[in-house]
Automatic annotation (TrEMBL):
Stretches assigned to the CRAL-TRIO domain: 125-290
PANTHER family reported in the protein's UniProt record: ALPHA-TOCOPHEROL TRANSFER PROTEIN-RELATED (PTHR10174), CRAL-TRIO DOMAIN-CONTAINING PROTEIN (PTHR10174:SF213)
Biased composition (Acidic residues): 9-25
GO molecular function, one term: phosphatidylinositol bisphosphate binding
One Pfam family cited in the UniProt record for this chain: CRAL_TRIO
GO cellular component: membrane
Protein name per the record: Alpha-tocopherol transfer protein-like isoform X5
Signal peptide as annotated in the record: none
Domain of life: Eukaryota
Gene3D superfamilies: CRAL-TRIO lipid binding domain
Positions of the UniProt region annotated as Disordered: 1-29
Organism: Frankliniella occidentalis
Upper classification of the organism: Eukaryota, Metazoa, Ecdysozoa, Arthropoda, Hexapoda
Length: 309
């Protein structure tokens, strides 16, 4: 999966569509630049995060577990300098199961250390990340689903397969996910939306075999968050070929949360992600992906020094 928070200025005009937009984004109650407020709140949550606060708000995680996981990481020399928010994220995604959290840490460290083309040199300001964002959108959405799930959208910005680099795209995707996890280590869940519009088989050939195997292992076993659903939008018969390519890498547990939507099947999507949580590209009430990317970029720039490397 740079701009300004002020890229969207909600004006007070007598326009039904504008009123609908204000209802969708006015999370601050101010009626002005509420999207900016939502992203500022995420960044502030990361800056002000404390272990005491996380333990107070999450009964399934105990201080003794955090201490035990930290000691294990140090003694095993796996992530010996791990930050407390990430410790909590591992325990949270494992629902307080210490041994399961250790298993996730092992995969997290193993894949990241052995896949430098995705996880090394990934400052938000790096030329590679900026180039990847010129090819694709990697947007965090400001509004959560009714269940409290955070939504992340990935889509092609430039459909030309010759400019698509899978490793760079994955780098930008996981950089974005890491920033949100750092801001919200105990989020109830995450929903990923992949827009298949303009995707061609040429994009798939760019993946190769070795890298997707690592990436999907990380997605399934090493990502410190609760993935609730993965939606594929604007699917065509090509999706069947894509799934045949991916199936060897994907466990049945992950496949069970896949949802597929054709361009004519958006009503089913709205049952799971309401329109006030979606950009206008998909019939939602939020601004288009281009503007939401501006907000996401400002958030990522603020989070850059807090994102795990």
């Amino acid at each position: 999966m740079g701009g300004s928070r002020d890229a969207v200025d909600v004006q007070e005009v007598d326009d039904p569509e504008q009123d609908q937009f204000e209802d969708a984004v006015d999370t601050s109650g101010s009626g002005t630049d509420a999207i900016g407020c939502a992203f500022r709140d995420m960044a502030e949550a990361a800056r002000s995060w404390t272990l005491d606060g996380a333990l107070r708000d999450n009964a399934e995680i105990e201080r003794s577990q955090v201490n035990a996981l930290r000691s294990w990481c140090q003694e095993s020399e796996i992530l010996p300098d791990i930050a407390e928010p990430l410790l909590v994220a591992f325990l949270h995604c494992s629902r307080g199961d210490l041994e399961q959290a250790k298993a996730v840490v092992r995969v997290y460290e193993s894949v990241r250390s052995k896949t430098p083309e995705v996880f090394a040199d990934r400052s938000f300001h790096s030329e590679e990340v900026q180039r990847a964002k010129g090819v694709g959108y990697f947007c965090v959405l400001p509004n959560k689903t009714p269940e409290g799930y955070r939504v992340i959208v990935q889509a092609l910005r430039d459909p030309d397969p010759t400019v698509f680099v899978y490793s760079s795209s994955s780098k930008a995707q996981f950089l974005t996910m890491d920033a949100v996890v750092r801001a919200e280590p105990t989020a109830p869940g995450y929903v990923c939306v992949f827009d298949m519009n303009a995707v061609q088989m040429s994009h798939m050939w760019a993946w190769g075999i070795r890298l997707p195997r690592k990436v999907f292992r990380y997605l399934q076993e090493g990502l410190p968050l609760r993935m609730q659903r993965i939606h594929f939008l604007n699917t065509t018969p090509l999706m069947d070929r894509v799934m045949r390519m991916l199936r060897p890498f994907i466990r049945k547990e992950l496949q069970s949360i896949f949802q597929f939507h054709t361009a004519d099947d958006m009503e089913n999507l709205y049952k799971m992600i309401p329109q006030d949580c979606l950009p206008e590209n998909y019939g939602g009430f939020l601004p288009p992906l281009e503007k939401l990317q501006d907000y996401t970029d400002k958030f990522l720039a603020e989070m850059n020094n807090m994102i795990p490397t």
